[in-house]
């Protein structure tokens, strides 16, 4: 796969409307040679074409019956569900591949952010125990593309819910990582409510179970992490408002004058403030 010819497109600003996406950009996106830079580009993708291109890049048969059948029925599913079906088809195609690990590596390091999103879903399909899943998804949690990072935590959300105590223990080292993307992953993965994902009923009822993670992030220097921690507490405030108020009051008292903590607290209390 030759990506040299698209170097001049990498620093572009995304079009405000799908109709304004330059044909050259759309061509490169559909060929899997370029990352999307905004939602318009993501929505403009021709998924069947991209899937066939990526399959070829991986050394898989783009015209295999398994993939062709999947692509033929994509329109019957909601947009985000289509990505899951493509990921599953590619995963199944590697089942008997002599170099399955090499294929997985090529997908995980693919130039297309959408292809790497499909790779995150291979973690879900793997059936690995939770520690191994977290280890496998770590590279995606640190991915430079925001979309891949979102898919990373979604890929292990159900496994985290199923083994919550173990997950909270394993993630304690993640909140101490030097990479803000890794720290943010630990917070976002365990949000009691989250967005477009299953809710964590135990943390809605007992948010204090997540406190060891939150304490390490309460004065985090990264705004990306701060927003996630604030959203975590805002989620919890809908079911345990008094606990959230107490935590925020204590943090402000212990971190007097710290702008990072003040920002987290202000955003964490936004729903309660409206009441």
């Amino acid at each position: 796969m030759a990506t040299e010819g698209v170097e001049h497109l990498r620093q572009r600003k995304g079009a405000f409307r799908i109709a304004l996406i330059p044909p050259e950009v759309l061509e490169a996106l559909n060929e899997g040679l370029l990352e999307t830079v905004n939602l318009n580009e993501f929505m403009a993708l021709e998924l069947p074409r991209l899937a066939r291109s990526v399959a070829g890049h991986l050394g898989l048969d783009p015209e295999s019956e398994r993939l062709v059948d999947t692509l033929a029925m994509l329109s019957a599913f909601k947009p985000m569900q289509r990505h899951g079906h493509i990921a599953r088809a590619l995963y199944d195609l590697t089942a008997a591949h002599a170099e399955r690990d090499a294929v997985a590596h090529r997908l995980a390091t693919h130039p297309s952010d959408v292809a790497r999103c499909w790779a995150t879903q291979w973690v879900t399909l793997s059936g690995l125990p939770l520690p191994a899943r977290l280890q496998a998804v770590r590279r995606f949690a640190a991915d430079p593309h925001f979309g891949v990072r979102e898919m990373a935590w979604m890929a292990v959300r159900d496994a985290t819910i199923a083994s919550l105590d173990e997950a909270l223990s394993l993630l304690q080292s993640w909140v101490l990582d030097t990479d803000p993307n890794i720290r943010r992953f630990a917070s976002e993965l365990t949000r009691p409510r989250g967005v477009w994902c299953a809710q964590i009923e135990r943390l809605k009822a007992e948010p204090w179970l997540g406190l060891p993670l939150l304490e390490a992030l309460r004065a985090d220097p990264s705004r990306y992490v701060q927003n996630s921690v604030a959203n975590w507490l805002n989620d919890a405030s809908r079911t345990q408002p008094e606990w959230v108020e107490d935590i925020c009051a204590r943090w402000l008292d212990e971190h007097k004058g710290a702008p990072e903590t003040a920002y987290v607290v202000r955003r964490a209390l936004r729903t309660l403030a409206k009441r």
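Residues 193 and 199 are 5 Å apart (CA to CA). Residues 204-275 form one domain.
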